[in-house]
Amino acid sequence: MDSWSAFRSALEAQLPADTCSTDADDLATYGRDWTRVFAPAPKLLVRPRTTAEVSTVMQLATAHKVAVVPSGGRTGLAGGAVAAKGEVVLSFERMRAIGPIDALGLSVVVQAGAVTEAVHRHCAEAGLFWPVDFASKGSSQVGGNIATNAGGVRVIRYGLTRQWVLGLEVVLPSGEVLQLNGALEKNNTGVDLRQLFIGSEGILGLITQATLKLTRLPGKTDVFLFAVDNLKAVLKLFSTARKGPFTLSAYEFFTDKCTARLEKHRGLRPPFEAASSHYVLMEVEAADAGALDPWLQKLFEDGLVRDGTLAQSEEQARGLWALREGISESLSATGLPHKNDIALPIEALGAFCTELDSVFSTRYPGWEICLFGHIGDGNLHVNVMKPEQLTKEAFWEKTHEADEQLFSLVKKYHGSISAEHGIGLLKKPFLHYSRSDTELALMRALKAAFDPLGILNPGKVL
Ligand code: ZN
Question: What is the pLDDT of residues 124-136, one digit of tens each?
């Protein structure tokens, strides 16, 4: 018997009958994430229900040298969960238990497959919040959020996922189970292995369970939309907002190229009479009611904004948020975007964008660039839309060249080639723009220490 057949029959002998699937639709669905660059081609889907079952899968995978790709909500945008080379996809969707809230320690234990929004709803009943929040929260899973150190729209207020994980349970490629840090807030006992797994994109171990750190639900929030003239004004407004009479909980921007696509796909548009080239969505908490009006008035007096609106109801607030959160989906629905997710030091953003403009307009005249992002964190989503006349293949080839230009510029301004999407397969060729040779060598050494056979999410990141 060859090693694959031996692996299959051992799995079937040791796990419940419905754990494995080779159904063609299942393989196509579970073998891909939201990137549409790689054709999925896994050989097998396994859906374990417990940590012990995950451990069994990994023990057998190690014994028979079979590659395993972990799979969460598959909302990733870097190909980190793509299985395109006959791997086993290990889905966590049957491991979605959410434990009782620890109201004193402000934590909750959840399995890796718990859906982000379900965790939010569970915590909200106790007036608490796990502040990892983004447009795909309805399908993204906690394990994937942690494995990719997910960002999103609240980072400016709360920081990345990394800050909101107290403990992890991890299954190593050998099948051994690690319990890391439990529910401890303070634990100063050497290298924090938990943090190594956070953001490692499933190349070191499989996160099966996490103890999440919670905070209180935000109080009353106000949501504004402003129309401004250019990126410079976006940044100027940001520096004013940082000192405003409130706590800033989101500061997002998008351009008219994004709103045009949004209107085409969802029929939504900014509620202003005149069109503008740049828009800012701002959410604030605990605004000082007496000080807010004069602050707003001054924005107009100083000519910092062309127009602005404050949501008067929850429904209006949701409507303004839909303008921002509907963008990514609208770009994909109305064309083929090549997505980039970069970070720059905030103070470098102005100069960076001016240079970016001139690079694109001289080298790729007529290309449509849709810019949006979490500008308060220095995080830009640069979406290059495929021109009608180019074939898909010619477009990918051109964007690869364009990326070299873009990332050289990112490097020049001391930025990062991936702010929140991760490296996966898509950004792997460019990792050297953000990490030194020594750093890459250390990462490879870590990979070899945790996964000496190289069976876990092979080919990703490194
Ligand atoms: Zn984002």
Answer: 999 999 999 988 8
Instruction: Read off the pLDDT of residues 236-271 as tens digits, 9 standing for 90 and up.
Output: 999 999 999 999 999 999 999 999 999 999 999 999
Report the separation in Å between the CA atom of 29 and the middle of ligand 1, taken as the mean of its atom positions. 23
Q: Which residues, other chains included, contact 302 with Cβ-Cβ below 8 Å and sequence gap of 6+?
A: none
Largest CA distance in the chain: 79
327-334 helix and 256-266 helix, angle to the nearest 10 degrees: 70
Determine the Cα–Cα distance for residues 385 and 74; give it in Å rounded to an integer: 23
- CA 127–ligand 1 middle distance (angstroms): 26
pLDDT tens digits, 17-72: 999 999 999 999 999 988 878 899 999 999 999 999 999 999 999 999 999 999 99
The radius of gyration of the chain from alpha carbons, rounded to an integer in Å, stands at 23
Instruction: Compute, in angstroms, the gap from residue 151 CA to the centroid of ligand 1.
Output: 7
CB 161 within 8 A of CB 149: yes
How far is residue 67's CA from residue 235's CA, in Å, rounded to a whole number? 46
Residue length, the chain? Answer: 462
Select from 446, 376, 451, 367 the least CA-distant residue to 406.
367
Measured CA angle at 369 (ends 134, 238), to 5 deg = 55
Give the Å distance between the CA of 24 and the centre of ligand 1.
Answer: 32
Does the pTM surpass 0.90? The reply is: yes
- Cα–Cα distance, 174 to 124 (Å, whole number): 38
Q: Which residues, at least 6 apart from 38, have a Cβ–Cβ distance to it below 8 Å?
A: 32, 79, 82, 84, 425
Calculate how far, in angstroms, residue 322's C-alpha sits from the geometric centre of ligand 1. 14
Measured distance CA(200)–CA(386) in Å, rounded: 31
Does 274 have pLDDT greater than 90? yes
| Domains of the chain with CATH codes | 3-94 (3.30.43.10), 107-216 (3.30.465.10), 221-328 (3.30.70.2190), 335-420 (3.30.70.2740)
d(CA 429, CA 431): 6
Compute the distance from residue 458 Cα to the ligand 1 centre, in Å: 25
Helix (H) or strand (E) holding 324: helix 314-325
